[in-house]
Amino acid sequence: RSDSERRQALLSLFDYFFNRSHKFRLRTVEKLQAVDFDSASAELLAERLRKEAEDRRSAELSQKVVAHVRRKLDEVKDDIERCIASADTALSILVPVFCTDFDEDTTKNSDSTSDPSTAQELQEKQDEVKPAIPVVSYGLDLKYWGEQRSEAPIPRNNADCHRFWRAPEDDDRDLEAGSGKSFVSKPKKKKVQESTVRERLEMDVRALQKAKETELTDVVTISFHTHDYRPHLSFPARRENDCFK
């Protein structure tokens, strides 16, 4: 008996929960399937009104911007025309117009182009090659186009100009020519002495060679033997002064 009562209680409990869940499902389906057309139409109307108001505000703003730009343009219109006129005048003064009356002829005869002879003449005029540079009767203005300027000479340091300047040296010519600058410094005594000794030796050697050449042209005698025909050169005796000093 106790088992039957317990089983009855469980069945009643399951039946209660099943019915409750089934009702809950039915209510949920009804809520999902139900549509409130009044609220939906009201929301759509509010969205449409908001969009129209936004478009109206943007149109008013764009009209204000356009009116402001037009007002500014009207204010500076006279200045723009004045600047254009001054620029045209300056260009006509600086760059003279080199052209023919071809443009005027074309504008005048635009209505009479049906004639074949007129069309042929216009075609011939168009085929003519115009010079790219205008030919004038006078030469180019060098002051305007730029004149050829000679390079300024590079100042050389001379030993006799100032006692603090160094003597001119052949080894430093390329350096001075590249830099274009001169500086004041004390002369190098050792190098100057070596150069002077070398120059003196070279001068002595040149003098000796020149003296020998002159003596050879005066004293050389050529003697031929009867058998071998070989020339013999007779040189004068060496003098005492033919030595380095």
TrEMBL record:
Annotated Gene Ontology cellular component terms: chromosome
Please report the stretch or stretches of sequence annotated as the UV-stimulated scaffold protein A C-terminal domain: 133-172
Which GO BP terms apply? Answer: response to UV; transcription-coupled nucleotide-excision repair
GO MF annotation terms: RNA polymerase II complex binding
Q: Where is the composition biased (Polar residues)?
A: 109-121
Q: Where is this region: Disordered?
A: 105-128, 170-195
- The protein's name is UV-stimulated scaffold protein A C-terminal domain-containing protein
Native source organism of the sequence: Teladorsagia circumcincta
